[in-house]
Amino acid sequence: MLALYFILLVCVPLGVIMTVTSPRLAITVAVTQPAVLVLQNSNNALTSPRVITSQPLDHDELLLRQASKANPNPSPKFPKKLAFMFLTTNSLPLAPLWELFFNQSSHHKSLYNVYVHVDPTQKHKPGSYGTFHNRIIPSSKPAYRHTPTLISAARRLLAHALLDDPSNYMFILLSPSCIPLHSFNFTYKTLVSSTKSFIEILKDEPGWYERWAARGPYAMFPEVPPEEFRIGSQFWTLTRAHAQLVVSDVEIWSKFNKSCVRKDICYPEEHYFPTLLNMRDPQGTVSAAVTHVDWSVNEHGHPRTYKPSEVRAGLIKKLRSARPRYGDGNRTRKDPFLFARKFSPAGINQLMDITRSVIFNDSALV
């Protein structure tokens, strides 16, 4: 007991005390250097302290912990907002199109927020003016394919958006090759009227078992058994409650935050989010994405990219008229695609030419 009191006396004054609870353990971490971890079991008996690191807690961990405390419900005092989260390496070549999308009306400025995650090691120019000015989140880190870093980047975006504005209601993850398919009004009304997230959740897709076992044959046990594994698009739209669920998750993230032994089938960003949401709240999701993508062409793991010569009114009409694939086999819903990818940066002029007459004109194409 004397040793225990000595530990508490030394640790408590040195830093801020944070507590993370789980059904089995209450974990108290003194954020000092070194950090000391004290485990409190369900019978309130304290175990011996142990040093978990010689450095302060990782900034991501602190950010996610703070975001996990955010109110899962949007502020009732203000209009609901859309959080547009762009995940890019160094630039947003289609920013001029998005600039017009966000500024169709001065009234729209109170209905959205923009967040950008970039690779800080690269020269990035996501937009130094207008809507994208000063919208790069400060915790951005490099993100690479075939690694969990793409998941981490999306979780950082969610955390910043949760903490930044309590009115953020829907959280939309977008790539630099994404475009809107409708006006801001249409997009806003469609999303804020939904009480569910839009995320593709597919079961028993070709090669699913190999993807599940990509970290090793036993790496996902026991938290994620094979029958719980799901596949879906990297780009989704989550409610505020689900955004908080993602940043609060430790258990499922611990299984996906591992290196793969087979890189050729390692796409954790396409697995973590659908698996987590399906395990935690399948009834709270529409098991389809509202971002259109054409996988009829697969170029080294990348979907079809629309070239400048393909950008015309007919293409937009085709994308608008398509309907999502529902992982649960739903045949009654007819949700519209709100966004589409991938569009070549070289096609920005062609896109701008049809922006007002086609893309933002909801009555022109139905």
Automatic annotation (TrEMBL):
**How does this protein lie in the membrane?**
Single-pass type II membrane protein
Q: Which GO terms describe its cellular component?
A: membrane
Signal peptide as annotated in the record: 1-19
| InterPro entries given in the database record | BC10-like (IPR044174), Glyco_trans_14 (IPR003406)
Q: Could you confirm whether the keyword Signal appears in this record?
A: yes
Can you tell me which residues the record assigns to a coiled coil?
A: none
Q: What is this protein called?
A: Glycosyl transferase family 14
Asked whether the keyword Hydrolase is assigned, the reply is no
Subcellular location per the Swiss-Prot or TrEMBL entry: Membrane
Supply the source organism for this entry.
Arabidopsis suecica
Q: Name one GO molecular function term.
A: glycosyltransferase activity
Q: Which domain of life does the UniProt lineage start with?
A: Eukaryota
Alphabetized UniProt keyword annotations: Glycoprotein, Glycosyltransferase, Membrane, Signal, Transferase
Pfam hit, one: Branch
Query: What phylogenetic lineage does the species belong to?
Result: Eukaryota, Viridiplantae, Streptophyta, Embryophyta, Tracheophyta
